[in-house]
Amino acid sequence: MCTDNCAKCLGVALLSLSTVAFLCNILLFFPGGKEIGNIDNLSQEVLLFGGILGSGFLMLFPANMFLDLKYNDCCGCCGTKSCGRRFAMFSSIIYAAIGFLGAGYSFIISFISIRKGPKCLMDNNKWGYPFHNGDYLTDKSLWSKCLEPENVISWNLNLFSILLVVAVIQIVLCAIQVVNGLLGTVCINCCKGYRRI
């Protein structure tokens, strides 16, 4: 498979994953599937937009670049088509690094949120974080510390877990494109049916 065809497949996958991340982050604004009256009662990590900014918006740059890579020859610089194609493949490495940073941001936000637990109404009628160091993950009896919103623990845990997995997959795909971009930069003429101008 040519390096640009591989990049196109990676672009499609990244676009799909960024859509999933975007939707998950939107759903986090409705803890337990219900609208919350005060935005201050949302977990801080929801407002950091890990899925919208990191795995969502920032991932659109590399995804779109990878999709168009097959047709990008940078106007055939230096009088040869391979020169422009080499530059395009090299620039895909930079875009992959942007995607890596975005997915890394989403991963860190999701990991912190899973460990910290959701913000909820506690039995002292105050909103806060009743869990410490992920203790609620191993002891489900602690979930009773959260009175409202209903099902907020499983809601946040599931959505942030999805964001965490999406971020890991995006990091792997961006790393694959770094290798693919290096191969394309070094041996752009290796693709079947490709010829110099």
Automatic annotation (TrEMBL):
Pfam families in UniProt: L6_membrane
Topological relation to the membrane, as annotated: Multi-pass membrane protein
Keywords on record: Membrane, Transmembrane, Transmembrane helix
Cellular component per GO, a single term: membrane
Subcellular localization: Membrane
Stored InterPro entries: L6_membrane (IPR008661)
Name of this protein: Transmembrane 4 L6 family member 4-like
Organism: Phyllostomus discolor
Source taxonomy: Eukaryota, Metazoa, Chordata, Craniata, Vertebrata
